Amino acid sequence: MTDNTRRQILKVAAAGGGLAAFGAGFSHTAERIADHVLGREPAQDALSGRSLQPEFHVDPQSGELHVNPEQQISYTACIGCTTLCGVRVRIDKASGRVLRVAGNPYSPLSAQAPLPMKTSVRDSYVSLSRAGERGLAGRSTACGRGNAVIEQMYSPYRVLTPMKRVGPRHSGQWQPISIEQLIREVCEGGDLFGEGHVDGLAALRDLKTPIDAERPELGARVNQVGLFFSVQDGRESLARRFIQQAYGSINIVNHGAYCGGAYRSGSGAVFGDLKKMPHAKPDYTHAEFILFIGTAPGNAGNPFKQQGTQIARARTDGGLNYVVVDPVLTHADNLAARDRGRWVPIKPGTDGALAMALMRWLFDHQRFDRHFLEQPNQNVAEASGEAAWCNATHLIVTEPKHPRQGRFLRASDLGLALPDGAERYGEQDAFVVAAADGTLLAHDAASEAAQLFVDASFEVNGQPLKLASSLQLLREAAFEQSIEQYSAICGIPVETLAGLAHELSNHGKHAAVSAQGGMMAGNGFYNAWSVLTLNTLLGNLNVKGGTFVNGGAFRYDGPGPRYDLESFDGALKPKGIPLARNVPYEKSSEFRSKQAAGQPYPAQAPWYPNAPGLGSEWLPAMFNGYPYPLKALILWSANPLYGVPGLAGQVHAAIADPKRLPLLIAIDPFINETSAYADYIVPDALLYESWGWAAPWGGVPTKATTARWPVVEPRADKMADGQPIGMESFLITLAKTLGLPGFGAAALRDTDGNPYPLDRAEDWYLRAGANVAFAGKQAAPDASDDDLQLSGVERLRPQLEATLKPDEWRKVACIYSRGGRYQPQSEAYSGEWNSNRFTRPLQVYNETIGCARDSMTGQRLRGVPCWSAPHFADGTPLRARYTEQDWPLQLISYKSPLLNSYAIGASRLRGLHPENPVAMHPDDAARLGIAHGDFIEIETPDGHARSRVAVRYGVQRGVLAIEHGYGHRELGARAHRIGEHSQPEDARLAAGINLNDLGLRDPTRAGYSVWMDPIAGTAVRQGIPARARKAAA
Amino acid sequence: MLQNRRDFLRGLVSISAGAIALAFDTPAQADTQAARTAPSTHRWGMVVDVAKCIGCQACTVACIHENAVPEDNFRTIVSTYEVHEGERTDAYMLARLCNHCEKPACIPVCPVGATFQRADGVVLVDGERCVGCAYCVQACPYDARFINPVTNKADKCTFCAHRLDAGLLPACVETCVGGARIFGDLRDPQSSVRRLLAEHQGEIKVLKPEQGTVPQVFYLGLDPRFAGKVDGEAALWRPSHQEA
């Protein structure tokens, strides 16, 4: 029913429809006059009303600064999302309340033109003013959410006191208790709830007894205590030190596997590290064309705000054109930029087909970067002018049934001598390439370009051996389907595919492809790998205008230049199988016994050797008891029941049952959907109350470390010694109570071996600050007294001087006064190359993947990117199980520019965008008889929901797009009773729906399961089969 | 398929030169009430570069905090649209605020002289005089005013006059993530706003020019379909207090 002649303008719900101002009315005029007569609430100031007093005055002529003595400006970090931007916080000194937040002008995540560290704090304030219009060019911002989340600090739903549940789990009733009682009970255990004996953390720390004597590889019983945290917010090293090195459990995990993990895993395959998963971002400022697939610059992503600033500038003042491929149109596009930015809809979970189509076109038209790809090693690549290199020319054994089939041919296979002490097939056993004349030679011995496409039998040690080059295998994968077939899969017309490929290949290295959270489909790993391999074919890594990896951090933890924050006397190295089984199945007793019985596959449930720790799998694993059940779980602001698709509906009974999980402790400033089940909740610092040293997640080519420090007094209750209760004071006290190594007196050492205590958060973070200050060739500058005064760091001075050495404290103070330590932006490039380059080879063929077997099907995985349709664990394709006939629609999740999974409490965000109507295409709406604003019932194989509909052209046909961040059951959506106090009832916090309540279990798995990508182990939220019908209003 | 973004503007009818009276051409009429005015060498104005807006609402929320704007009211907001034309669908964002017009429609209708214009062009409401009758709210062609439910006075954007007077920038400008809001002195030929107006002469537009209010908030990249009342389907937004 698309009407090509008609213009449709639809105010979408992202903000502001019928507003009081700018659209609606003024209906209470008479009443207002009456109120005035009665003299109710007069304005504070005749002209400025209730506006804030300015934080300082700057003389526009002289630039002289006069601060408002009633306010404090401090530079610290936001935690309104995972970007962790540097911000400036404006505080009312008398009340200690945060008044407003904007950007830190030193921070590359917030400022358009970050100030160098040597700029004084005084001058940094002047740089924000209108004097000389410096504040325009020197703008440093906070986004809408960053501006709004301060309200959360004063939320009536905050947990400020330690609490213990009253009645059964999830009763919503709590008893405030002292932190001392809480720590005693969780350490000692006992009949804590009148439900029988519960083992405490002391008894559970059994470092010797195996969990299962028949399966010793699982490790000792201590592994049955796990710590599940949310975000790497610059505090996680202390939690890791506690649970792994001190307590001794292998089990710690974060939210990555239900965030953007598939993207990271696909990137890990490209960059050759599937555990740390390096990734690169396009250089928005210098690129000429960027293709965004499953990511939306300016709408979401990380770094959200910086990308927003950069895309806005690049599509206007800069030279960038871009296309966003996504099932849903978001703020990534703006009509005002006309053809500089375009949206192309795609079917969910088919990004890999798009990528393979583009590859096929590049191969067909010889439009890949041959010069980049054919360099056999780093030296030759650099000498020939390439800033990076890859393994496109490296040869793989393709001889059928050969024991090394799927492995790279190595120099030792040619009979070449290995360097002294080198292991055969180890890192120093070179790869092999075919020279132009066809001779085989070690890749590091080659002095010029090698053959790119090799598929032949060679004589190796007198035997014929079939070999193929990496790029040959990639080309074969790309050629498995025609562009027309790929087009049919992804729903993008052939001409558009050709146009995109042409455009991508028409800018040399100044074109790039970018992806992120949109990769979370049932085939997310191969989709992401395929998409990101386009960058390899463009040869754009490390090049100005291409792609780049992060410049890295001034590291705070680890051995450190001043203090060793890694090793300590008695530190444990945990052993065993992690809960999510992200290790090879083939090393398990189960595999050996099944192999002995003749049928090693399938495993009882999938293993994920090529994935990092998987928060998506933790709850299914612990409640299936496979590999083992947990006895105690510490949740630190993690919320898997809200965040993992398909999980909550399955596990709510299990997690509510203390027999299934005997001890559940939450550290959380709020009660979320998961911590609502806790036995105990320990309050935590929130936003500007907390410490931390954070590195950017991506997008910053220079070294950067953001400093977070309590610029306001934490609101939680205090420990007996005056420390605020929070993650740090809780874990430190817990460790000391349990007598664990690495905490308490003499737990830390400086580089000379002198001992220092770890009794308080400051002991850790300030010494970490010394490491940041002394990292790199040159130490950070010293703070002046004026810096200390103006920045509010003066408040920390007694602790700084007491904790640090005389040559350290002013440097650390300098970093706090500037909200971080940042390499100058001028050092981002050396000529046309990035200064901080990724120098290991990009993987066109990934041997680790190519030699791995799926633990369920026993099939070898493909070692190159390929089109792989979404499927379940046993290999059943999605559409074989849930047919298009029965489930004609597909759900996708998209990120909100305003809300996230924990921002619903910010009323001013809700005021802009109170709920999340599901986006549906007009053709689907017409078919179902649904009008804009109607309600529908959505049904998936494992869930259902009722939702309002926004009928939009900005969504792919057949797709229901659900904005993330709504549909809460906790965080205020349910009022809890704490002691005698009841939280306020506010149904607005429950508005809208949560896609994750509609997610799937894996129907081919037994027990608890969620549908996950078979390699990345990441939860599936893109392309969930569904159907819908009109509901009663 | 890709062309310079400024090109398309040439194809559209731009407002006749006379319709955009720039304030620096004709000095503002000084308010005669000495208590509320002072001479000024400035004339403040804003250019909104629409293509730089990402609709993140940082301006909206910063304004709310800076100016204690009550719930469900806005001194500024970014209206967000979806535009479907032919086979193409795009988002469109339009920042809205008081235009601090050169000929403000709100001033003559005020029965008590509460609304006035400073010599630097900023249109303000004198809260001590305002009786909350809302004539100005009705008179404003831009719906930029509201009756503040806490103070019961007419309320609207002040260009953060309290910050300007302190040598600072308006809150919305300081925190504009895309750099879409460019603010400055229209009487200073070297200012960014003046340079932009000169550079994009003929492309610069204002909202509802036919109203004759001579707005001093200028738009670069303003689609004419959005210059007046937007003909589209309403969003599903309702005031917070009506939610759930």
UniProtKB/TrEMBL annotation, chain A:
Q: Which Gene3D superfamilies match?
A: 2.40.40.20, 3.30.200.210, 3.40.50.740, Dimethylsulfoxide Reductase, domain 2
**Which GO-annotated molecular functions does the record name?**
4 iron, 4 sulfur cluster binding; metal ion binding; molybdopterin cofactor binding; oxidoreductase activity
Keyword rRNA processing on entry? no
Which coenzyme or cofactor does it need? Mo-bis(molybdopterin guanine dinucleotide); [4Fe-4S] cluster
Keyword terms: 4Fe-4S, Iron, Iron-sulfur, Metal-binding, Molybdenum, Oxidoreductase, Signal
Q: Which Pfam families match?
A: Molybdopterin, Molydop_binding
Q: Where is the 4Fe-4S Mo/W bis-MGD-type domain?
A: 71-157
What's the domain of life for this entry?
A: Bacteria
Record's CDD domains? MopB_CT_Tetrathionate_Arsenate-R, MopB_Tetrathionate-Ra
Family, according to the entry, reads as follows: Belongs to the prokaryotic molybdopterin-containing oxidoreductase family.
Protein name (Swiss-Prot/TrEMBL): Tetrathionate reductase subunit A
Query: Organism, per UniProt?
Result: Plasticicumulans acidivorans
From TrEMBL, chain B:
Q: Which UniProt keywords apply?
A: 4Fe-4S, Iron, Iron-sulfur, Metal-binding, Signal
**Highest taxon of source:** Bacteria
Q: Which N-terminal stretch is annotated as signal sequence?
A: 1-30
Name any one Pfam family assigned in the record.
Fer4_11
Q: Name one GO molecular function term.
A: metal ion binding
All residue ranges annotated as the 4Fe-4S ferredoxin-type domain in the record? 44-74, 121-150
In terms of NCBIfam families, this protein maps to: DsrO
Write down what this protein is called. Tetrathionate reductase subunit B
Q: Which organism is it from?
A: Plasticicumulans acidivorans
